[in-house]
């Protein structure tokens, strides 16, 4: 079976992402608009550093999407106009220490540069981008796999690609069904926190907060240190978890809802079309159709997250959603409930398929292919590549 990790992101420069926004910068406005280029850093790592540097809250910094960490990415961020920032700012991260720099070698160094490109009257929010342009080098692609790639590319050009959520959505999930969110929903906040910190290191000294802090200190963000020190001071687990930034707590909910949505789509495809099954993370599977007899219907189909606010007219989908929600023990009272200070299991719509635009082969060697393409906001290049390489 195809292992995506051996084909992409061997170097950050193998995976280049450029965000596209649907408006032009203005000459003045309530928010400064910066173009942020980063390498081997997550968007949130940069946002947390900037909030400390500029002495503002992380929530004051707006961005339209979370970009890959192990990649070279360009995106836009907004900062209130009354915050004093140089026109250009570069920092390198060396061993956890941030060092100011004149410029950065994005192919070799971990760091970021941001440059003011204008102003806007609206703070950027998640989803405000039009989409992203990608240039990706696919390595270790032998003769037989190259044939598979070109065969699958013809299918994608004709029928699009199933619009699954990619692995970036599941950073808080350690095992197959080990969702932090489900522990929170059941009220077991201690188990939720144990699962969260197990991703950081050993739980050997759980409960002895001084030793636990010592064991994990080198791997912790500042807010995670604050949480453990809060437990040491006698905070309850229920109060301590709220020390995690809201966007981190929201990720627990998003990870579970994204998993459910992926399962809806996988089951739907397997019920209607000829398909191939592909390995995903945590031994999960994704299924991609290889032929579609109702493409006009499918390309316009939008799938709800819960079906509570947005009704489901497709009878097959309605049945699948009900079965999967029942399987995980989700009750009517859980929808829109407040858990750990966030509203969970809320509804929304997501397109069932996407069509990559301007897909081009821009480079070839004996064992690699470099491709460029544009994807609409919310669609994942890693999902497209899993489809093309399987």
Automatic annotation (TrEMBL):
It comes from the Bacteria. Belongs to the pseudouridine synthase TruD family. InterPro entries: PsdUridine_synth_cat_dom_sf (IPR020103), PsdUridine_synth_TruD (IPR001656), PsdUridine_synth_TruD_CS (IPR020119), PsdUridine_synth_TruD_insert (IPR011760), TruD_catalytic (IPR042214). Gene3D superfamilies: TruD, catalytic domain. Keywords: Isomerase, tRNA processing. The active site is at residue 68. It catalyses: uridine(13) in tRNA = pseudouridine(13) in tRNA. The keyword Manganese does not apply. This is tRNA pseudouridine synthase D. Its EC number is 5.4.99.27. Residues 160-355 form the TRUD domain. HAMAP family: TruD. Responsible for synthesis of pseudouridine from uracil-13 in transfer RNAs. Pfam families: TruD. The keyword Oxidoreductase does not apply. PROSITE patterns: TRUD, UPF0024.
